[in-house]
Write a structure and sequence with these properties.
Blueprint (H helix, E strand, L loop, with lengths): L2 H20 L5 E4 L11 E2 L3 E5 L6 E11 L8 E4 L2 E9 L2 E2 L6 E8 L4 E8 L3 E9 L6 E10 L3 E10 L4 E13 L2 E12 L5 E10 L8 E3 L4 E8 L4 E12 L6 H31 L3 E5 L2 H16 L25 H14 L1 H12 L2 H10 L25 H4 L2 H17 L2 H22 L1 E2 L5 E2 L17 H21 L5 H9 L39 H12 L10 H12 L3 H10 L5 E2 L4 E2 L11 H15 L2 E4 L2 E4 L10 E7 L4 E6 L2
Antiparallel strand pairs: 1-8, 2-3, 3-4, 4-5, 6-7, 6-12, 8-9, 9-10, 10-11, 11-18, 12-17, 13-14, 14-15, 15-18, 16-17, 19-26, 20-21, 22-23, 24-25, 26-27
Helix pairs in contact: 3-15, 4-5, 4-8, 4-15, 5-8, 8-9, 8-10, 9-10, 10-11, 12-13, 13-14, 13-15
Length: 675
Amino acid sequence: MKIQTWVFIVIGMFLSVSLKAENESLWQLCADGLHASYAPAPMASGCIGILPGKEPFQIEQVVLNHVFDAAAPGVVSRVMRGINPFELKMKVDGETVDTLRITGWKQTVDMHRAVHRTEFRMGQKVRVVSDLRALRGLPYAGLVSVQVEALADVEMEVCCGMEIPDDYATGRVFYREVDADGTRLYLLEAEAVSARKLRRVAAASTFLMEDRDVQKPLFKEDANELCLSVSIRKGDTFSFSLVGSVCSSRDFSDPYNEAERQVVYAVHEGRERLVQSHERLWDELWRSDIRIEGDDDAQRLVRFALFNLYSSCRAGSRLSIPPMGLSSQGYNGHIFWDTELWMYPPMLLLQPGLAKSMLDYRMDRIGPARRKAMAYGYRGAMYPWESDDTGEEATPTFALTGAFEHHITADVGIACWNYYCVTHDTLWLKREGFPLLREIADFWVSRAVWNADGSYSIPGVTGADEYANGVTDNAFTNASASLALAYACRAGAVCGEQVSPEWKEVSQGLRILQFENGVTREHATYQGETIKQADVNLLAYPLGKITDPAQQRKDLAYYAERIDQQNGPMMSYAVFCVQYARMGDAEKAWEMFRRCYLPNWRPPFGVLSETPASNNPYFMTGAGGLLQAVLNGFCGLQVTEEGIVQLPSVLPPHWKRVTVTGVGIGRQTYVREQP
């Protein structure tokens, strides 16, 4: 390894540690309005997502990553909610602990340690602190750790239950006692079958006790709950944890016993080691960080976007990220272009291992993509607009996007080439990258139609603007297809492979239309209608097909006011921000940066919704766009065939400096500061 690379690594590690120590509050998001508006912040491990609520110990749902129930006539596949093994209830002196009886309520999302903390008092009886972790080191499990300080002599009862969502066909909850190498374990367990019988899901939980002298839990058969009863003297503190695991037949042939094994493992590890492993793995992720000096609100916003994307994926999992991540069943948990165009680029810069898993997802599903191309009369591979775990088309039949939004196949090809550009892994390109690009190129050659003037058109598509269906020569579709074809040619040259001359011919011949005034025309029949989101403007960034600043400004001015202000997603303004920052317009870039998140920001933590008019736990696609505004816009990072470079750009007027650590394979550090 070059000395320069080692220097970058050391600097990156030093900056990562020192910046965390500099101001811990910049790693925390806090809420203290118990009766104020509340959008929950998800906690996830890349395998399960846990959505905590406002009530003490409340878990609204558990979401399973890429675990789908089967489709049925008129109903497409949908990602499943898991059995919830984290259901806790507490009584103090016979009174139920709930929002009607507590004061001093406060919640904190600690992004550094990946823990969701709830604090409150119940009268003059107890002060409670409850920490929730979706364990990074045991990713099908979660840990709830509770500390109770007695303000008076009290009797306390804590019960854990199992919630089986009502969209399961059958399910049961039961109690088991297990001797595990001399340790007596008291387990609450559940198993259920999905509504259409495709998947089996199992869960297990138990109390982890720091005080081994506490009496054994009591199973209440009528309520299917495992309960602890303790007396706490004034001034004493009682601590316990609840560990739960959720497994499915998608990931394990025997989910029932695996869920139990994981809980047994957690008991023998103990709370301290589970937390240490969790925090160590998050420290590794945070070696890749974005530090903004001069704007603490922007710092927390951007770091929260990183936190949510990091939470949604795992290196080596060969899985991708749906639009809502693991926060909900939004969009049925399917995979769209949201991955390749919005979430993947910042992950490729900061976490190439996670980005590779997202790309592996597409590699593993090339077979269904070939079959789809054949079924629609084309060659090569044609990726579905919405993909579930099978890799087949999963778009609801009423949505025309499933029939017409073909640019997804180009988006996958562009992501493939960019992975090579960042890693320069020639062996991977020969074995996996180029074979995929070849299939994609063959598809586009068969999809394009030759015109009498020698140009090529692509008819019958939906572009990034999903308000225009079945159009011809959509700007983004043609430009992305052209780029994918060009990248396939370059990959062939790197690998020493002969490529079809048609690839280059079609790539160079695809039409990009203009109005008479020189504005790039969205498609052949476009007349200035309202659009859902940026389409033409994507040609300048991220595609790089339009490089003339005058043309960029002309297109930006024309289309910025035609975007649906209520129902358009937030990413359009993120790409506007990138372009203005690179053109040196700091004021305009700052305006677009604020427009890309402010209407979608939801209190108290800053959860992002998809549109100004919607509410959802967290829109991961928007997080990807926001991060590109900072990484590729303000900091000027760009993936090229030579690797990652830093282009000229400007910061918002009041920002002092942006430092990005842990970039690329070499873990480099990039800085942009005010002149």
